[in-house]
Design goal:
The chain is built from two helices and 23 strands. The chain is mainly beta and 294 residues long. It folds into two domains: 97 residues, Immunoglobulin-like; 161 residues, Jelly Rolls, CATH 2.60.120.200. Strands 11, 13, 14, 16, 19 and 23 form a six-stranded antiparallel sheet that branches. Strands 3, 4, 6, 7 and 8 form a five-stranded antiparallel sheet that branches. The radius of gyration is 28 Å and the shape is elongated.
Length: 294
């Protein structure tokens, strides 16, 4: 009887321990990954390597792990080699609430072999995808440039090549407003069409700094001339004292416009209060302007 009781208690104890393991299994201890900012490389015909990648989007196989700020350690479960896909994230139109994967930068695939509680640091490098096309690139390094047309304002307000405060290289572009000419619209010369015929993605990249707010849009054209009243503005940037980089998503704007042909236009204006301009002089600086599509 005593042997039976002891055996029964032993079996009950083992079953209880096994049951606890089944109900509360031991959780695996993750390893961690921290990703440094992307380095961008470009070829001679792709213009500047300037970028403003705000975060990294990370996937493991078919599982999306999340979008992370650079230098933030995040957990990765699993043992042995773990392949990760890293994609460069930007803020569409410079708006923090519009994070997007930039479609023209190539995804980066890395393999990490993590131990429990270990952190590996990754320093990714990427470039434009081979299928990326450039409708134009303007870096203001040559004697001529594409922003020579003034749609609103005087000819004196055309963009000038200036070596005074270049973003990089020898020169940048600048146009000037004053109290007598408070509004200026400058147009990029190429007459464009069909940029979204193969893919909907069309972006305008730009380095800039400005004394006033600036709008970015399209001027529509029929064959032979402009369409009356068809300037379309849906994006822009705020005044900023130091150089910044921005990615304008023109995909929806171009699709919605239905323009047969179009040009890129920038509009700047000095605010006027009670008939008095707020500034006597305002300058807008631009550089490395790229219109990219597939």
């Amino acid at each position: 009887m005593r042997f039976f009781l002891q055996t029964s208690l032993l079996i009950w104890g083992l079953a209880t321990l096994t049951g606890c393991d089944l109900i509360n299994p031991e959780e695996p201890i993750p390893g961690y990954v921290s990703i440094e900012p992307f380095q961008i490389t470009t070829t001679a015909n792709q213009g500047s390597a300037s970028s403003k990648i705000s975060e990294v989007w990370v996937s493991a196989g078919n599982d999306f792990l999340g979008a992370y700020r650079f230098g933030t350690a995040f957990p990765v479960l699993g043992t042995g080699p773990q392949p990760l896909t890293l994609q460069a994230g930007i803020k569409d139109n410079g708006i923090g609430e519009l994070p997007e994967i930039y479609p023209f930068y190539a995804p980066v695939t890395v393999t990490v072999n993590l131990g429990a509680n270990e952190t590996q640091i990754i320093r990714p490098m990427t470039s434009y995808l081979p299928e990326t096309k450039f409708a134009f690139i303007e870096n203001f390094e040559g004697p001529q440039h594409i922003f020579r047309t003034v749609r609103t304002g005087t000819t004196a307000q055309a963009v000038q090549r200036s070596a005074e405060m270049p973003f990089e290289g020898e020169a940048s572009g600048v146009f000037v407003l004053d109290s007598m000419n408070t509004v200026a619209e400058v147009v990029a010369l190429p007459l464009l069409s069909g940029l979204n015929s193969s893919s909907p993605y069309v972006y305008l990249e730009m380095n800039y700094k400005s004394d006033v707010d600036v709008l970015v849009g399209l001027v529509g054209f029929e064959t032979g001339g402009p369409i009356a009243g068809t300037t379309l503005y849906e994006s822009g940037f705020r005044a900023r004292a130091d150089w910044n980089k921005i990615y304008f998503n023109l995909s929806q704007t171009i699709f919605n416009s239905r323009f047969p042909q179009y040009q890129i236009v920038l509009q700047a204006a000095i605010p006027v209060q009670n008939g008095v301009p707020e500034k006597k002089v305002a300058k807008v600086w631009i550089d490395n302007v790229k219109l990219v599509h597939f």
